[in-house]
Amino acid sequence: MIVLENVTKYYKTNLGKKYILKNVSMTIPEGVNVGILGINGAGKSTFLRMLGGIDFPNSGKIISNKTFSWPMGLAGGFQGSMTGRQNVRFVARIFGKDEKEVKKIIEFVKEFSEIGDYFDMPIKTYSSGMKSRLSFALSLAFDFDYLLIDETLSVGDTRFKEKSKEALMKKIEKSNVLMVSHSMSDLKKICDVGIVLNNGNIEYYDKISDAIERYQQINLMYGIKEEEIKDLFFYKRNKFDSLVKEAFFIEDEGKFYLIFIIKYINKYILFEVNEEFLCKRINPTIEELCVQKRDNLTEEKILRHFTGFLKRFNTKVFLDIELQNKSDVIFSKRKEFFIKILKNQKINLLKKEEKNIILNIIKKMEQL
Amino acid sequence: MKKRSPLRIFFSVVKALLLREIQTRFGSQKLGYLWAVVEPMAMIVFFALIHAKIGTKTSYDIVTFLAVSFVSYNLFKDIIFKNIDAFKANKNLFVYKQVKPFDALVSRAILEIYIQIFVVIVLIVIGYYFNVDMKAKDLLLVILGFFWMALFGFSLSVLFAVLNYFFENFGKIIRLMFLPMFFISGLFFTADTLPPNIRNILLFNPVLQFEEMIHGYYFYSLSDKYVNYTYIWLWTIIPLFLGLWLYRKVERKIIMS
Question: Is the N end or the C end of chain A the one with fewer CB atoms within 10 Å?
Fold first, then answer.
């Protein structure tokens, strides 16, 4: 059982306080698996972290005598200069395991994560997928009353996904789950009850399907803002550099498309954006699109980075074309520029269906 | 999973952090251990040569004197220097709710104590080899003095670590302040040899008093007559409690940020 007593949690922003929870009291009953829903920025992850005891409300109390895992799939709990094995050993130790148990945990994680020889290499040499797999395997190695899952079911390739789902299902026979996910099918399969975070309020639903319905309603209300998408791609932070030079976002008959111009290699791609992509929390997405500035960039590396990124979201790519004109794109003329490059395409070479989509997009852009 | 008492969690976390700290500091670059020994030895040789050149006559063995000074001073200084940015360095680990920022301070301080014990053993072996007169007047009190000095360093480090977390340049200022400390803390002289007016000013420096105390316990010809015990107790207790009080107020902020 988890009891929330007059819990208030907010962030200070330039526009004042942004509330995640506003004086909320509720009880999550024993023995149910809970799905947590809410639009981007509603504070689902923060809520999960508060339940797990690594974030704290500004006022009020969260009371429970259960044990909680750390948010699963979170790759932040590793030290880059140490190997996977050393990191796993460390976590096993803080949970007070003796050396024999530690050994067992290490063996399990090594086998489950399937990262092979990388297990004895520093974490900083891992790809993000390997990190997530390690983190996922590590959280399966312990027995918690509650597993906190923050969108981690989509780790690795299809086979690994299946395997981790299976392991997770087996795990939740003994423990319960508190999970944030944008995959409605996962939520339906795993969770019994649902919590919808909305504007500082918490709405509790005895049936997960009711919660999902409510969430979809809210989601429609808010829609998707282009600004948000833009932020995502022109993101810069001292050490990172976005691979996207220009992006254009367009909606057509309820479908969303994005055009990227990829930096350094003068290529652009047009692809369909699906729900999974849009719902992904912004930060990890940004990081996946960025490269560390000091990395030596080769064409091959960039392309690999990108295809990996697109594959992860199951996006449908329509165009993947080399830019003719290598001159820089002027920001204010973005629209014209994109229309031009789209028109320049040898559209007739495409399949009919794809051709229509692109023509529609061009038309739509001209109307804007 | 079985519920553990807070104290047991604290111990297992400190132990895990300690082992991890040892691995990161000494695992990849084996020079870590070497440097811990070489640095004080270089200092000892350097200042012993200066003393020999000037030709000062001391009632105590100058090499032992320098060794005692540098080991105790390094213990004190390194606890502070290592702890001052311990929160930032261990930030990643606060995703495990068992790990509290304070645990990092404790484990780093313990590691510094281990390192200096290791240094002392090496120095004793070398001392025996060269037939240095290392006999102490009251060994137990000397050891106690060392631990007190470590506690003093830890007290300051708690306070500094909290302040450094919220004021970015605080650590730099502290490091800067430590530059003159090396020369005014009685590491290669005794307070007795100073002119009285200078001595009275320098005795405000608690580190000098700590060194005087340890030297007084170690050497037959020296005493702790310049040590004001109330003064150094206050220097130990006030920063500790102030630091802990501040830490309690901001612990959650440190974990969340």
Answer: C
